[in-house]
Amino acid sequence: MRATHRAAFAAEGADEAESVSALAVALLRDPTARPCLSLLAERDGAVLGSALFTTVRIGGDGTQPRAAILCPLAVVPDAQHSGVGTALIETGV
């Protein structure tokens, strides 16, 4: 997954690509972001993209409703604009 994020955000610069990659890993490890849903899109054994949906709380007192956010979504450059990202989002929603 880290390689997918790095490739997807490489055009934004190495720092941005690494930041997005690190964010995805941090969210997967964060117990307050659970439950989460992590999806991978593959073709012929190669990862084309990933989507991570995590839990967020609206408000700070714990009585507010929970929601899910999509963060981050990544598609490798060769698969961008081919429907991979759309398929990941639609599957997650």
**Major β-sheet annotation:** 3 strands, antiparallel
Query: Percentage of helical residues?
Result: 25-40%
Distance between the termini: 20 Å
Strand order of the largest sheet: 1-2-3
Number of strands: 3
Q: Helix count, per DSSP?
A: 3
Short descriptors:
93 residues, three-stranded antiparallel sheet, alpha+beta
Description:
- With 93 residues, this protein is an alpha+beta fold.
- Helix content is 34%, strand content 31%.
- The protein has 3 helices and 3 strands, in the order H-H-E-E-E-H.
- The protein has helices at residues 2-8, 14-29, 84-92; strands spanning 37-43, 46-57, 66-75.
- The chain has a 3-stranded antiparallel beta sheet with strand order 1-2-3, sandwiched between helices.
- Strand 2 (46-57) and strand 3 (66-75) form a beta hairpin.
- Helix 1 runs antiparallel to helix 2 (14-29).
- The protein is globular.
- The chain starts with a helix and ends with a helix.
List the SSEs and their pairings.
Blueprint lengths: L1 H7 L5 H16 L7 E7 L2 E12 L8 E10 L8 H9 L1
Antiparallel strand pairs: 1-2, 2-3
In short, what is this structure?
This protein has 93 residues and is α+β, with helices and mostly antiparallel strands. The protein has helices spanning 2-8, 14-29, 84-92; strands at residues 37-43, 46-57, 66-75.
